[in-house]
Specification:
Elements (H helix, E strand, L loop, with lengths): L3 E7 L3 H12 L6 E8 L5 H11 L3 E6 L4 H11 L4 E4 L5 E2 L3 H11 L4 E9 L17 H5 L17 E4 H6 L12 H11 L4 E12 L15 H18 L8 H20 L5 H9 L2 H10 L8 H11 L3 H8 L1
Parallel strand pairs: 1-2, 1-4, 2-3, 6-8
Antiparallel strand pairs: 4-7, 5-8, 6-7
Amino acid sequence: MPQLSVIIPVYNAGRFLDECLSSVCAQMFQDMEILCVDDGSSDSSGEILSRWADSDPRIRVFRQPNSGPSRTRNAGLDQATGDYVAFADADDRLAPEMYARLLEKALTQELDVVGCSFMPYPEGRRSVFSLKTGTVLDFHALIASDDHVESSNDLCFVWRYLFRRSTLERGHIRFTPELRVAEDMVFVTEAMAASRRILLMEEAYYYYRIDNPASLMKSSHDPARLNAIPLSWRAKMDQIRRFRMDDFSPCSADLARYTLRNLLPMMMRALPAEAGKEGVREILSTEMIRQSCRILGFRNPFDNVKEYLYYLAVKFRFPALVCRLYK
């Protein structure tokens, strides 16, 4: 069995796939299997995967009808045989030393999870952890090191981590198929909560592409988000409760602020133009918005008086005023 399984979900990534696979195959660490799951691509991705599989015996290709990112990653997990599991997105690339450095830490310090910082590209500066780095911690000690666990990207981006596969299997940890937003954050939180030894590193070894116009998060008008975002919020709130996260960091309040500052505008942008005030009223009446307002009370989650008025309009469900102030 290889020491590492690298899972790459692929959907219409032909423009960037060669660059991604080249960076994975050129890793300093070579004892790995590369599991590429083609999620019903309609571009050149299938042909590119076949060509790479013919040239590198470590690459195995699996094909399925389009099922979304969660089911695609789960399909890779079901085939993985390595001691550790890593993920890569098909439009990104890796520094040559990434897996060698992370596995060295994982093996010498007997880690369940090890993560690194990343570099947005083609331009951007290193994105580092807000959580404590450089020290082996359990899950509760780790989240206690930051007051912004839910609103930071620290528990997001599954590709910045290596996971001990036996920990995932023992906890029956998989991606939730119904989630299409923040599914990786929910997965990472589950994996970390099941782990005894976690280490985060400041070094940036992963290059995250930010100029892909086909990326899911690039779409501003996406009506599917009206259901997808509350589902993810509910999953996060469930984790906060199950893992007693509020006992160690103000996770509920942080998520409430993030919901009103970030998730609410995403849902407003997702509304069709004809939805009007009734569409806004429906959003304001969702459990996600109502509970976030209850958690915050009259504390201002925003930065100035005008934005506080916007929050009060949300809290007391005045859709006309919300629409006016939102613009």
